[in-house]
Amino acid sequence: MTAIDTRAFLADLYELREIGRFRTGVHRPTFSAADMESRRWLMARLEACGLDASIDGIGNVLGRHRGPGPHLLVGSHIETQNEAGWLDGALGVVAGVALARAGLPVDVVAFADEEGHFSGGFLGSRSAIGDLTEAEMDEARNRTDGTPLRAALAGAGLAGLPRMRLDPARYRGFLEMHIEQGTQLESAGLHLGVVSGIVAIWQFRIDFAGNQDHAGGTTMAERRDAGLSAVRLLAAIDREFPKVCGPRSTWTTGRITLDPGGFSIIPGRAEVYFQFRDVAMPVLERMEACLEALVRESNRRERCPATLTALAKAVPAPCDPALMRALSEAAESVCPGSWQVMPSGAGHDAQNVARILPAAMLFVPSIGGISHHWAEDTADADLALGVRALGDAAVRVLAG
Fold first, then answer.
1. Residue 214 annotated as binding?
2. What is the pLDDT of residues 135-173, one digit of tens each?
3. Which cofactor does it need (predicted)?
């Protein structure tokens, strides 16, 4: 087993945590001053490990191993959600630094904007596989304040830089270490999770057309309340989806907007953003068919017609069997009997890289299942176990 310097690994994690620190977490949105400081910090770390470090025109940082192959690609992302956790993404990148420091022939990558601060989503990893067009970049806007992506890149000093493309011929595969962002490992008393596949997220907008009117002068019999129609449909979804979903399916109403939104005005329009997730296409298709049937039933019963629009329908990304086997053998080596195979309920850069390379992921527990919040945390012992297992797996893959 390759000796991983876990003390240096943890020190790097804690040092990176101080860039953009917010309470016990981090506020490092994409292309912010803190985000760019963290990318410069990372490039210095990569150079210190003997890698050639560069940053490209979308903000991806790559540390390239100078020696002969075979090579592995290891990494994740280092920007965060707003006022969020210190490990989501950063863990996978700093783990790559630890493997490079140990002398393994790895390239280390920090993809830009995995957290989706800009419209389009996964800008960095999509760009790296050739799936981000210049036209999409022209149209992309910051989801919080509307800043155009081009303006943000210029402000970060990245405008005009070329965008890197990953070369599949260079790599045996891609490994990403990540916190679980759930409670499955902690609840089972386990220390590692070998990811079997990454969910696809299917996103929809549901628009309800009612009639705006006075909240006091309009009788209940006369009303066409778009808000009530929306609520009743969402209740029906929550009642019917358990009949068609898989064991780890999830569904979420992320936003409900009522127009005009006044206290004393019956809403004439309602807009709902809704998504569901699963790792199996047949399950996703059943859930979509159920959603469509419920919208049809709503339109039969309700006085406010609903229109369903599909916004995004990704494809699940199963992890590579050979890489999973290496991770499983490594997990058994470092913590016998204290690991499991499990799906990822969240999206990750690995699902994009998996389109051109074998890819797999390793999870460590999240305390209380908390993530996307400044209280996100993982025990140092589990972090150290994870990077040791990742190093062991990398050796197995490279030797194969």
1. no
2. 999 999 999 999 999 999 999 999 999 999 999 999 999
3. Zn(2+); Mn(2+)
Closest CA to 352 of 147, 111, 183, 159: 111
- Quote the CA–CA distance of 226 and 230 in Å, as a whole number: 6
**In this structure, what token pair is assigned to residue 166?**
């990953």
Q: Which amino acid is at 160?
A: G
Dihedral sign, Cα of residue 225, residue 230, residue 231, residue 232: positive
Whether the bond between 267 and the residue before it is cis, its omega within 30 degrees of 0, is: no
Give how far Cα 61 sits from Cα of 64, 86, 244, 287, Å: 10, 18, 42, 38
Q: Chain-centre distance of CA 33, in angstroms?
A: 22
Query: Would you state the structure tokens that stand for residue 177, as one six-digit string?
Result: 């270490």
**88 appears as a binding residue in the annotation:** yes
379 Cβ partners below 8 Å, 6+ apart?
365, 367
Six-digit token string for 61: 């940082």
Tell me the torsion sign for CA atoms 257, 260, 264, 267: negative
Q: Which domains does the chain have, with CATH numbers?
A: 6-199+316-399 (3.40.630.10), 200-313 (3.30.70.360)
Tell whether 373 is in a known binding site.
Answer: no
**Residue 115 marked as a ligand binder:** yes
